[in-house]
Amino acid sequence: MAGVRLLSLDTSSVVSVALLEVSDDAEPVIVSDALGTDTHRHAEDLVPAVRDALAAAGWERPDAILVGEGPGPFTGLRVGLASADVLAFAWGVPVFGLCSLDGLARQLAPAAGGEFIAALDARRKELYWGRYDATGRPLGGPQVGAVSTLPAGLPVAGAGVRAREAELSAAGTPVVAGTEDTPVSAAHLALAWLAAGRPEHAPVARYLRESDAVAPASLAPSAGGVK
């Protein structure tokens, strides 16, 4: 895949959209990199962010799309994955997926300086996490669980640190200073994808657990079936 205009997007935490120019004989160029701040406005913010990025870059469309597969909360993650599929179909371009934590780890590896845990808030007093080496290469995960499930002795980095600050402190778990509020960047997701050899697999949602949504009791099937 040479001379490619890549749209990268992620909704595992906040909305993040990036455009990159990728070629085989030069370093990738990050054309734009937009990062939201709200973890509850994925449906409202994603498509306008994509539209604005393309307009600013003067692109009619990208040549390929990369989307973060999570893990992340069900609703936000579904917005990103569904939007990537719809845009790919409309533009007639391929869409690929990568674990969102791989992008986070790629960004935080220099600060970690060794093997570490990249983590995002999973709510329910839990973390989405993966284990990475000093370069950001995945060693294990992704998983979801309480702070007590983390490998002992490894520092934790990423937005999950702020969310589970009290639990991490109580457990004596080290953290990577300065990374406590860092969400997934779509630009670093793309860089992680390139470093992994540009795997061309279709996106697969990494929800890791069931949705928090519960159907109202009035919609539950009765013992006698539908009447």
From TrEMBL:
Keyword S-adenosyl-L-methionine attributed: no
Superkingdom of source: Bacteria
Claim: Protein transport is one of the keywords in the record: no
GO biological process: tRNA threonylcarbamoyladenosine modification
Domain Gcp-like: 40-148
UniProt keywords, alphabetically: Transferase
GO MF terms held by the record: transferase activity
NCBIfam families: T6A_YeaZ
Protein's name in the database: tRNA (Adenosine(37)-N6)-threonylcarbamoyltransferase complex dimerization subunit type 1 TsaB
